[in-house]
Design brief:
The protein is α+β, with helices and mostly antiparallel strands. The protein contains 29 helices and 20 strands. Strands 1-2-3-4-5 form a 5-stranded antiparallel β-sheet. The chain has a 5-stranded mixed β-sheet with strand order 13-12-14-15-16, sandwiched between helices. Strands 6-9-10-11 form a 4-stranded antiparallel β-sheet, with helices on both faces.
Length: 656
C-alpha cells in the first residue's frame, strides 16, 4: 500500500495541465485551458482544465476531478496504478506502508491487472533475451543493427527478441507463478492438445511492444527473420481485454509530446517507419500498423492535433485503399495532407539516406492537400475515358462532402472544376446528392432513435420534479467545498435581561466564524436531514474534521479518491462563468468569491425558508388525510411555522 506521505508528495508535485496535456490538445482560455473532450464526441471544446485549482471538468460528459482521477478515467488505471504513473513522471520514490495482505486481498487482483503485469514481464524477457543471450545478439540485435538503429533508439522502443525454443517464455512465466489461464488470455502462450505444457505464440522473431497512450504494454508485433519458412512475416498479439488493435497506434506513447508541440501528426504504415524517423529526430509520427484507420485511432490523434500528414511509399493500390480511411479523418474535421515518397523509398529508407533537415523540408514542401492529391491520382487514372472520369469526379466530391467547413468545400469544388473542366454548378449539384447519401448513412432511423428520445424524456421528467430544497442543499454543500475556510464576520445578537424584564441595549459586537461552521450550525440547529447520500457522506467528513479542529473543504476531498466525491468537488470548484472572458467585452461584475458573506447568509435563509414550507406542507397534508379530530395544537404549529416563514421573508428582503 502506498504511504500517505508519498500520496501527499505526488499531489503536491503533479500538474494537472501537464498530465492532461499529454492526452488532450489544450489551448489557453483566460486563466484556464480548454480542449475537446477525450470522453465524448464534440465539435466545440467543453473540456476545461484549471491550473490554479488543479482540477479538470468535462462539461460534455459531466466527469471531472484531479490529475489522478483523469488517469484513472482515460487509462482505466486503479488508484494505486495512477499514483505510480504520476510518481514515475515526476521522479518521486514510492514508499510502501508495510502490510500483510490477506488471501482474499491477494485473490482480488483482476484478470485485467494480471494481463498488464504478464505483458510487462514478457517485454522484459524479450529485451533480456536480445541483450544477454548469444542467440539474441546474433539474430535479434544483429537485425536491428543491420537496420542502422542506435542503442538509444532500440532502448526507447523497448525492442526485443523471442528465442527459437518453442516454450522459452511459457516455461519462464509458469516458473514465476503465472497461471496457464492468464497466459492463454494474454495470447502470449498457446496450449494445444499436442503440447499440454504450452508453446510460445512468438518464436524466433524480433519483438515490437505495442504501448498504450501512457506507456503500458498492451501487446506485441513480431517479425520473422527467416525467408524460407511458411509463416506470416508479421504476427500480432490477438485481441484481449487490454489490447484492441483498432484502438491503438504504434509509437503514440513515444510521440505524443512531439505531436502536441508540432501541432502535426505524421501517419505511416509500419513499425520501422516510426522508429527510423525517430532516429533522425522527427518524433511526431505514429503508425496504423498496416490496418485501415479507425474512428478510435482518429480520436487518439485528435486529442493532440487536427493536422495530419499521411506518408505513402508510392504503392498506388495502397494509396487507393486508404481513401476511405482519409474520408473518416475529414469527417472529424481534420486537416489532411499527403506525401508521396520517390519510387523505391518509404519513410524508413528515405530517412536513413538523408539528414533530419532534408527530411523535414521534404515533408513540408512536398506534402499536398488530400483533395488535390486525390484529384490528381484519379484524373491520371481516368485518362480520356468519360465513364472513369465521371466516377472519379463523383468519388472526389464524395470526399469533399465529408469536409466540415463550407468555405473549404467551395474552394475545393472550384479547384476540382478547373482540373476536370467541369462547371461549378454541376459539382455543387453532385455535392448536394453526396450530402443526402451521407446523411442517410449516418442518421439513425426512427426505431433506433426511440431509446434516445425516451432517455431525453426521462431527463426532462427528472428536472420537472426537482425539489427546491435539494437544490439549496446542493448549494450549501458547494459553498462549504469552495469557501469552507473563508472567515465570516457576524454580529452578536441583542439579549434580554430576564430579571429586570427590560431590554438591555448592548452594543453590537462582531465575532468570526468559518463558512463550514456557519452552515453546519444551521443544519444542526434546524434538525435538517440531508436528502442526498453523497452530500451526507461529505457532511459527515466535514463534521469529523470539526471534531479534530480541521476545516475540510474542497482540496481535502480531492485526495480521497472517491470517484463520486471528486467529480462533485470538480463541479463545485469549476464555475461555468469562469470559461468566459467578460472583460474583453468591457463587461465587469463582482465575482462570487467577493460576495461570499452575503451569498452564504442568503442561501441559509432560503434553505431555512424552504425547509419551513416543507414542514407546513407536511402538516397540512397530515390534517387533510387524518380521520381523527385534529387538536388546536396542530393548527397552532402551522400558524407558528407560517409566522417563522414570514420572518425569514423579511430577513431575505433585508439582505437584498
Amino acid at each position: 500500500m502506498i504511504s500517505k506521505a508519498t500520496i501527499d508528495k505526488i499531489f503536491s508535485a503533479v500538474r494537472v495541465e501537464e498530465i492532461i496535456g499529454e492526452y488532450v490538445q489544450l489551448k489557453r482560455a483566460g486563466s484556464n485551458f480548454k480542449g475537446l473532450s477525450p470522453f465524448h464526441d464534440e465539435k466545440t471544446p467543453s473540456f476545461v482544465v484549471s491550473p490554479s485549482k488543479q482540477i479538470w471538468k468535462d462539461f460534455s460528459s459531466g466527469k471531472g476531478g484531479t490529475a489522478i482521477s483523469f488517469l484513472m478515467e482515460i487509462e482505466q488505471f486503479t488508484y494505486p496504478e495512477a499514483l505510480r504513473h504520476a510518481a514515475k513522471k515526476y521522479g518521486i520514490e514510492v514508499e510502501e506502508d508495510k502490510k500483510e495482505f490477506t488471501e482474499e486481498e491477494k485473490q482480488s487482483q483482476t484478470d485485467r491487472e494480471l494481463l498488464y503485469k504478464i505483458h510487462e514481464v514478457a517485454n522484459n524477457f524479450f529485451q533480456e533475451q536480445m541483450r544477454e543471450t548469444e542467440e539474441g545478439q546474433t539474430i535479434g540485435l544483429a537485425y536491428f543493427k543491420e537496420r542502422e538503429l542506435r542503442d538509444d533508439i532500440i532502448k526507447k522502443f523497448q525492442l526485443g527478441y523471442s528465442p527459437e525454443q518453442r516454450d522459452a517464455f511459457t516455461e519462464y512465466a509458469l516458473e514465476k507463478g503465472y497461471t496457464k489461464e492468464i497466459l492463454e488470455k494474454s495470447g502470449l502462450s498457446i496450449f494445444p492438445g499436442y503440447a499440454e505444457k504450452g508453446v510460445d505464440r512468438f518464436r524466433e522473431r524480433v519483438m515490437f511492444p505495442i504501448l498504450s497512450f501512457s506507456g503500458r504494454v498492451l501487446g506485441f508485433g513480431a517479425r520473422i527473420l527467416k525467408n524460407n519458412v511458411k509463416a506470416a512475416k508479421y504476427l500480432n498479439s490477438p485481441e484481449t481485454e487490454i489490447y484492441h488493435k483498432s484502438k491503438v497506434l504504434y509509437g503514440l506513447s513515444q510521440s505524443k509530446q512531439a505531436i502536441s508541440k508540432e501541432n502535426l501528426c505524421l501517419l505511416t504504415e509500419g513499425y520501422m517507419d516510426v522508429i527510423a524517423l525517430h532516429q533522425v529526430g522527427i518524433e511526431n509520427v505514429v503508425a496504423s500498423s498496416g490496418t485501415a484507420l479507425t474512428n478510435d485511432q482518429i480520436k487518439l490523434i485528435k486529442r493532440l492535433t487536427e493536422n495530419v500528414t499521411i506518408l505513402f511509399d508510392g504503392d498506388a493500390a495502397g494509396i487507393k485503399a486508404s481513401f476511405r480511411s482519409i474520408d473518416l479523418l475529414l469527417a472529424e474535421g481534420m486537416n489532411i495532407r499527403v506525401l508521396l515518397f520517390p519510387d523505391g523509398d518509404d519513410p524508413d529508407s528515405f530517412s536513413r539516406k538523408h539528414p533530419k533537415e532534408f527530411v523535414e523540408n521534404f515533408i513540408k514542401t512536398e506534402a499536398k492537400d488530400f483533395i488535390n492529391f486525390k484529384a490528381e491520382i484519379l484524373l491520371t487514372e481516368a485518362e480520356n475515358d468519360p465513364v472513369k472520369k465521371a466516377e472519379a469526379i463523383r468519388d472526389i466530391v464524395k470526399s469533399i462532402a465529408f469536409v466540415q467547413n463550407s468555405l473549404k468545400q467551395e474552394v475545393y469544388l472550384k479547384e476540382v472544376g478547373n482540373k476536370f473542366g467541369i462547371t461549378e454548378q454541376s459539382l455543387f449539384n453532385e455535392l448536394g446528392i453526396q450530402k443526402q447519401i451521407k446523411s442517410k448513412e449516418f442518421s439513425p432511423n426512427r426505431e433506433s432513435a426511440k431509446p434516445e428520445i425516451q432517455k431525453l424524456q426521462k431527463v426532462q421528467d427528472i428536472f420537472s420534479a426537482i425539489n427546491p430544497l435539494i437544490i439549496l442543499e446542493e448549494k450549501l454543500v458547494e459553498l462549504m467545498l469552495k469557501y469552507g475556510d473563508r472567515i465570516l464576520e457576524k454580529d452578536l445578537e441583542e439579549t434580554e435581561d430576564e430579571e429586570n424584564k427590560e431590554v438591555q441595549n448592548i452594543k453590537k459586537e462582531k465575532y468570526q466564524i468559518t463558512v463550514i461552521e456557519e452552515i453546519i450550525n444551521h443544519l444542526e440547529e434546524d434538525g435538517y436531514e440531508i436528502q442526498s447520500s453523497l452530500n451526507q457522506k461529505i457532511v459527515d467528513d466535514i463534521k469529523i474534521g470539526l471534531t479534530e479542529n480541521q476545516i475540510r473543504s474542497g482540496n481535502f476531498f480531492l485526495t480521497l479518491m472517491d470517484e463520486e466525491v471528486t467529480s462533485k468537488v470538480a463541479n463545485s470548484l469549476m464555475n461555468v462563468h469562469e470559461l468566459s472572458n467578460w472583460e474583453k467585452h468591457n463587461i465587469y461584475f463582482k465575482r462570487e468569491d467577493e460576495l461570499v458573506q452575503n451569498i452564504v447568509q442568503d442561501v441559509i435563509y432560503r434553505h431555512k425558508r424552504e425547509f419551513v414550507l416543507t414542514l407546513i406542507k407536511d402538516s397540512r397534508k397530515k390534517i387533510e388525510n387524518s380521520e381523527e379530530k385534529f387538536s388546536a395544537e396542530d393548527y397552532k404549529k402551522i400558524m407558528l411555522l407560517t409566522q417563522l416563514k414570514n420572518k425569514i421573508d423579511g430577513e431575505l428582503n433585508r439582505i437584498l
